[in-house]
Write a structure and sequence with these properties.
Layout: H1 5-28, H2 30-35, H3 39-49, H4 72-91, H5 102-139, H6 148-154, H7 156-162, H8 164-169, H9 174-203, H10 216-223, H11 228-241, H12 247-275, H13 292-308, H14 317-337, H15 341-346, H16 348-373, H17 378-390, H18 393-403, H19 411-420, H20 430-442, H21 444-465, E1 469-472, E2 477-480
Antiparallel strand pairs: 1-2
């Protein structure tokens, strides 16, 4: 595929315009706001409706060999964007974020780490079991279908879109569309089911609802609102940076450095693989791993450098967040715009079985496991992990805001700390990226046994360690019940 700069520019402009339209629709249509759907998802679905699989089937062709309202080069551009922009999202994940010691993270977020890890590894167990027992023998599907619940639900739209090339390289092209479809089902059902659970919990006195509920877009804007001290620091930085490169460009440069570091690391690892265990047509795993989880490690290295040389005041968390947020919006819109509805129709029963199995597992962990692992405020903390396991991080934040608007439980801080011990591995991390090549190399049964051992280990540890602890009120940590 060869695209000119002008063609790519037009494709990006269309996405920007659709994001503007989707924001207007959320303002004009109250039912869209009540669904709490992010503007990027709405925009992507709009472009999908205007594309070749929907409106293109019922209207005469405007552009040569391109059904729908958009020329072929626009569709090609959108197909290429997710695999590129997802690197920006993950590279920026930890830049500008203080990285505390492991002991601090564990004291504040240990139980949520256990619940989150149990949910994530269990999604592989459920998905692979379903694949081996039903989807492969009955529907003749690729065994890699067992990884789609974790990729689509826990990983979300960005991860599913970013792994499109991996799906294609391994001969499971339809997997990318199924994963994107699951991501859409996950975010919608996660918000709807989570809202119902919060209201049930309120009626039973498990939580006390106060204040107003916020939608994802407002949530992100609210959380990034600067304090008086931050504004003063911002003015000082402006004075220092007058006449130099624009601060936004500098922050984009930091993200670029993180991506380059990740690319160098991945290239080195792939070279080591080729000259060692992969020689003579041997085992190949890293060759199929996409760049974005390694770019995340590059971001951690950049942040450690910033902290080592006390450069924090030159890095704005809000600016980095805006860069990542914009890249994620464009990733989601372009991925949904090129989603193949034909593929979903061809595999509708496997798709529904995967969706129901994923939803059922997340509900089981929240209702049955979380109360037995989290010593205090289990629902306020667990609902965040439930939301993330069904969609994206913002879904988890949204549900926690709904369950505990004033953050009396401290769930938001614990959830944030948990991400540092969660994101690098699952939910779009290293194992998520390596799951497909691992299944291709070792078989679904071997990976089922491996993920099953990890699921049981995390669950047993949580029940035996945190299940016997009592909270130290007001401190956000726990001690053994003597």
């Amino acid at each position: 595929m060869t695209l000119s700069v002008g063609e790519l520019f037009i494709a990006l402009v269309i996405i920007a315009m659709v994001l503007l339209v989707s924001n207007a629709l959320r303002l004009w249509l109250p039912w869209l706001r009540r669904l709490f759907l992010p503007s990027s998802v709405i925009g992507g679905l709009l472009l999908l409706l205007l594309g070749p699989d929907v409106i293109g089937r019922f209207m005469p062709t405007i552009f040569t060999n391109s059904p729908g309202l958009f020329p072929a080069y626009v569709q090609e551009s959108w197909s290429a964007l997710p695999g590129l922009l997802i690197n920006v999202v993950f590279a920026a994940l930890f830049i500008g974020t203080a990285i505390p010691g492991l002991r601090t993270i564990w004291l504040r977020a240990g139980p949520q780490v256990v619940v989150g890890q149990t949910m994530a590894w269990g999604q592989y167990v459920v998905g692979l079991s379903l694949a081996l027992l039903v989807l492969v023998p009955i529907f003749n599907m690729n065994p890699m279908v067992g990884a789609l619940i974790e990729i689509g639900f826990e990983g979300g739209h960005g991860t599913a879109a970013g792994m499109a090339d991996t799906f294609s390289e391994l001969g499971f092209e339809e997997g990318a569309d199924l994963a994107l479809g699951l991501a859409t089902i996950g975010i919608v059902s996660g918000i709807l089911i989570g809202t119902v659970l919060i209201n049930i919990a309120a009626r039973r006195g498990v939580v006390t609802l106060e204040g107003e509920q916020e939608d994802p877009d407002e949530l992100m804007r609210h959380d990034d609102r600067p304090s008086t001290e931050e504004f003063s620091e911002f003015k000082k930085d402006l004075m220092q940076e007058a006449g130099t490169t624009d601060p936004l460009s500098l922050h984009i440069g930091l993200v670029g450095i993180a991506i380059v570091i990740g690319w160098l690391l991945l290239t080195a690892l792939q070279w080591i693989e080729q000259v060692t265990w992969a020689r003579n047509d041997g085992l190949e795993i890293l060759a199929h791993v996409p760049l974005f989880p390694i770019a995340m490690i590059g971001g951690v290295i950049v942040q450690l450098f910033i902290m080592r040389f006390n450069l924090e005041r030159h890095v704005s968390t809000r600016t980095i967040s805006r860069i990542a947020g914009t890249a994620l919006d464009f990733t989601i819109v372009s991925a949904l715009a090129t989603l193949s509805l034909t593929t979903l129709g061809d595999y509708i029963m496997p798709f529904l079985l995967l969706a129901l199995a994923g939803i059922g597992w997340s509900l089981f962990v929240l209702i049955v496991i979380a109360p037995r692992v989290i010593p205090e405020n289990w629902f306020e903390r667990g609902i965040g992990d439930f939301g993330q396991s069904m969609g994206v991080t913002v879904t988890g934040l949204l549900l926690m805001k709904m369950a505990d608007p004033k953050n009396k439980s401290g769930a938001l801080e614990s959830f944030g700390y948990k991400q540092l011990m969660f994101e690098p591995v699952v939910g779009g991390g290293l194992f998520t990226a390596a799951a497909l090549p691992l299944i291709a190399q070792f078989g679904a049964l071997s990976i089922l046994i491996f993920t099953g051992i990890l699921t049981i280990s995390w669950l047993a540890f949580g029940l035996l360690y945190f299940g016997r602890m009592v909270p130290e009120r007001g401190k956000g940590r726990w001690h053994k019940n003597k």
